[in-house]
Amino acid sequence: MATSMTEAPTAAAHPVDLLSKFDPIIQTRETLLAAGVEDPFNLVMEQVLSPTRAICNGRDTILLGTYNYMGMTFDPDVIAAGKQAMEEFGAGTTGSRVLNGTFRDHRDVETALREFYDMDHAMVFSTGYQANLGIISTLAGKGDYIILDIDSHASIWDGCAMGNAEVVPFKHNDVDALEKRLKRIPEGAGKLVVLEGVYSMMGDVAPLKEMVRVCKENGAMVLVDEAHSMGFIGEHGRGVAEEQGVLDDVDFIIGTFSKSVGTVGGFCVSNHPKFEVMRLVCRPYVFTAALPPAVMASSATSIRKLMHGSNKRQHLWENSRTLHKGLRDLGFELGTETPQSAIIAVIMPDLEKGAMMWEALLKEGLYVNLARPPATPAGMTLLRCSLCAEHTAEQVQTILGMFERAGKAIGII
Ligand SMILES: Cc1ncc(COP(=O)(O)O)c(C=O)c1O
Predict the structure, then answer these.
(1) Which of 291, 306, 321 is the last residue of a domain?
(2) Do 278 and 363 fall within a single domain?
(3) Given Cys at both, which of 172, 190, 282, 382 links 144, Cβ 3.0 to 4.6 Å?
(4) CB-ligand 1 contact for 200 (6 Å cutoff)
């Protein structure tokens, strides 16, 4: 019905501010910064000197909070391969993998992954986040069930949210809880169990041997995210599934190039005979641009070098053992009883103390990750240390000295 010109105009409606739900986060951040600490989530690496050193916020800093586990970012062959591909193929692909975005090096990196894992199929995504998003949401649809560890990475949860399967979480690393959940799922339903090799917040390893057995006994397919174990754990660096002897029983391995490989990208490898259909039906693979050829060439070179990285793996284990023992001896509370991976989580009493400790370490010349909920389990604040195969034994001792001074100054030890 038309409104008469003489009717009073209605007052402009005030829009609901969609950002107001974030007010508590804004408040927490302002309180933290008002206390005078440097912003832990706004660090700038002005210059990167090596896999273990950078100029951060103007200071020469030892890096103990990157995922550069095998130190491949400055490997001369990795850099040379990227430079050459950039010269030959240009800066970017400007297209999807299924249209104009598959170049020689996308094919080559998938060949390198098949060689690395000794598996039949490999599919490369633009990030590991997208690999989880795509593979999980595409595999498990309406009427299927996803059974996952409650401490799973955000990309796994988001993959569940994107699909329409029923989502059934179980207590972290609890084999009995997994088995109970599996037994309650209706007969004949599709079941995908999603596990991680190394859990990235606490640095603990999953009991994959028992879990994979329980999955097989109950007719479930298994996907293991080996983001934090590829290149380091297992005889050939294939991850925790290799280390625990169950790689052949895992249906899908997810991984990333943003950690041990030292570049960016994500992937899924599998021996499933129908796996190639995923290239046509997986939306986060189809509806996004393929990675630049330089990244692919660097990644392929890095993956092939990681196949011969056993000396580096041994040195990284030594670093992990030394740092874990040293921090424990100093009196810090750690995320694991024993060193289980290249990640050592130091548990902080609260966010305020955690931020103060983070800043004290930065002033000493050490960068670690300050991690807090929702990334961390059980509302914990953590200082996450992630070691690199290129950290020298002397650097690890220097790091321990820095932790001791900062911990005493803040009153944590
Ligand atoms: C377990 C796990 N899966 C997947 C990812 C995502 O990897 P990307 O950085 O390649 O997106 C991460 C990243 O931290 C991770 O920890």
Answers:
(1) 306
(2) no
(3) 190
(4) yes
